[in-house]
Design brief:
With about 725 residues, the protein is α/β, with parallel strands linked by helices. The protein folds into four domains: about 220 residues, Glutaconate Coenzyme A-transferase; about 290 residues, Glutaconate Coenzyme A-transferase (3-Layer(aba) Sandwich), CATH 3.40.1080.20; about 70 residues, no CATH class; about 70 residues, no CATH class. The strands form five sheets. Strands 1, 2, 3, 4, 5, 6, 7, 8 and 9 form a nine-stranded mixed β-sheet that branches. Helix 1 crosses helix 2. The longest helix is centred in the last third of the chain and has 17 residues.
Amino acid sequence: MTTHFNKTSDCIEELINSAGKNLIIGTPLGIGKPNPLINEIWQKAKTDSSIKLEICTALSLQVPVGKSLFEKRFLKPFTDRLFGENYPQLEYIDDVANDKVPKNMKVTEFYMQSGKMLKSATAQKSYTSSNYTHAARDMLNNGLNVLMQMVSVKEIDGRKVYSLSSNTDLTTDLINIAKRKKIKKPIIIGMVNPNLPFMGAKAQVEEDFFDILVDDHTQYFLPFATPKAAINNTDYNIGLLASSLIKDGGTMQVGIGSLGDALIYAMKLRQNQNSEYKKILQKLHIFDKCDEVIKKSGSTSTFDKGVYAASEMFVEGFAHLFDEGILKRKVYPDAQIQSLLNQEIITEKIQENIIEILLQHEVLDEFITKKQMQRLQNLGILKADLQMQKGYMIDSKGKKYKTDLFEYKNIKAIQENCLGDELKQGVLLHGAFFLGSRWFYRWLHELNENHRELFQMTPVSQVNELYGGEELDRVQRIKARFINTCMKVDLLGAAASDTLDNNQVVSGVGGQYNFVAMAQTLEDSRSVLMVRSTHVGAKGLESNIVWKYPYCTIPRHLRDIVITEYGIADLRGQSDEECVKRMICIADSQFQEELCQTAMRFNKLSADWEIPQKFRNNTAQELDKQINHFKHSGLFPTFPFGCDFTDEELVIVKALKYLKSQTGSTFSKIKLLFKSLLHKSQQDNSKYLQRMNLQAPRNREEKISRKLLIFALNQTQSP
């Protein structure tokens, strides 16, 4: 029996009464957290030290507030517009970040918002290193006794039904594992928020799924939304290279961020302007550098069959691919039928001789049983109104059809009278969670019911692994390209994606390892790791292609394909020396010679090997020159999928970035300050000053900030 509350505080009181004061609470990663409910129990435990509280979760998202005057003034109006003024920040995040979590409380995460907790001893000590697929198991093994989740709701046929919406990832797995291991099921609490998109299929649950439901109208809020990402030239070139590896009629997985967005943009370009797309690849020397791997493992043709997505994260890029007619390859929940589709023996339109085909390929027995009839009805092969009585199929008009398929006349009668029109239950995407922009959530809300059924949220165990439904997964996930990002790759192909060389955790393993391993298992499938060749570190420009790195997320024995902005390195099945050569070829030219010498010193590279001429000009300057040529004709815009900033904010962002670039040391800060104080502006900056509330400075800090901003605006705007 589900208990209902319309006040958050009442729910927490009931929880403590029923579960006691030793609470180990699981809550989903990302936007599925019921923030008001979590804040209520957090504050309760803060004021009552007899409550022992542990929160087990991942990806705790925080609206940025900024530290400096510039950051605060810029961010407040922007975040109010993007998140709404009443967005309930998760209160435990600040306590964790500032190492102020009381002794009776704890937060453990298996994935953290990237780079946000590097300085937090509390977060670093409490991090749990688990594959995404193992997180539910680990939570239960650690004594999880409560599960809290934000849910959506709607009425169907006069009754309320609920949706796990953005997060089917761990909830269903937790319950299934508890049943299988005969562990006491955790108390399941759902908090209603109609602002979450309603998703069906495995995300849809009945009221009795929950032990407690909270529907507090005063606590509805807009889910956390990510700002639209800007894409620079480096990311665009990586996206172009990755797009040439996606096969028509295949499968793909991709993550969030500007690299993923660049890939989506390039796929749209490949589909809608194919001749221009090929010209770009030619002029950027991509064919010259990567022709062999593209011919072997990729394609540059249009997506006539389309692709299917099996991705732990349902990123909004898939929405764009659907709108463009690229995400259109449906998969079906029947391994035998899917296999026949893959072989083009059958089509999605039901063929007139379909029963004969199914018999020939041993999909049907010589007698159609009730179970077989229902299977074919569910798939749309037989009409839905057929019923089985005493060995006959009977249609809505009462006409009987023999189910003995030994006689052709019976087959003929069924094929002439009982067939459906097209296959049913097709799916374009299986995902475990979603997170995206305000536009993406609106897009999900506005999907019609037929389209909504094409996007199915499932447990992460289904998406990220083959176990449990391997036969079906193998025929659905054909020609898969699992595309992920990483921070560092060594010359032998091992990759670090989540942790620094000092063992500080940047984010987490998530599902990356699962997909890399799956690519090795599935036929004609590849793992693609995208990495920018360099980054700016404490010592200036540093290479992300390195000789060695003390930590790895992906071991070298799973090495596959690595992409930087300078090319594609196909490492699968290659010798160590060949891997070293191919990795050096896609490194920035500033670091190539040093990498060569190190590899030679440790006997991994022949002393007489030379870098091929076509890879000797791997520089940011050359890349910018090539990409900028196409930007003049309207290609590769900074914000290809829209921008959340106003025109004034974009100008201010550019100015603030300039200030940051000029203040790397104390001396440079003093130098910049003097320049700004002496500078006399000749242009009207009033609208930018007004946006930053610096039009009438009231104190010394504001006066100096005003001078700095005016100077930066003058340095970054064209005359």
